[in-house]
User: What shape does this take?
Amino acid sequence: MVGPSEEVLDAFGLSEPAVLLPGGQGETWRSGAVVLKRAVSESAWRADVLAKLPESGEFRVPRPVRSRSGAWIAFGWEGSELLAGETDVRRQDEVLTAADAFHAAVAGLPRPDFLDGRSDPWSDGDRIAWAEQSYDGSPPYAELVAPLVAAWRPVELVDQVVHGDLPGNVMFADGLPPAIIDWPVYWRPPSWASAVAVADALCWYGAEPALAARWSHLPEWGQMLIRALIYRMATDDLAGGAATWTEARRSGYTPVIELTLRFAG
Assistant: This one.
């Protein structure tokens, strides 16, 4: 993986060599106290939001770092402050509590225009889950998702900007609030973002079914879990097709589908 060039480092006023950080899909680098990664369509918008977000005792966010020109983006890269902490996918109730506070803090922001131009397995999977985009998918996907599609019904909830990939993107450090990082922006109800986190925890991180029960007070919980699972499964299928559906992959989803249908009933 090619890291930021000397030109990029100089643009952000950095002198230390860039070091690849763990996680971040192998695309996140550190120079001194600044984290660098390649900019995406939402980078400038996200930087503006996070720069202005008031301090909170319930969560932290990485504040963006301007380049020497004053812009958030330089030569296709963005920078942010390095935060203390480590992710821990076992601490899902704390993840969800921090997410609630974060989503309350960003509620009321207008819908970002860049969402309309995004097309990738995650963005398309999200639209499929909300019946905004049709998708037949591979035969294994269609078979697995069928009971969720049958239980899907419309809901009336307020959309806002939310974090769509929480479990592995909340860091913990002693004496500090949880830090919410690597924000992929979606325009959905906050309870959907929480449902995605719960579904991920149940499918892949060893969470017990009681986690879903503890958060069942959230609006339209059964329907949000349905959409969360369809989103993840459609994304998997779009990214990998039929080859995605190994026995291990199917067995990760199957019990969570059964649990979700009980909440949706």
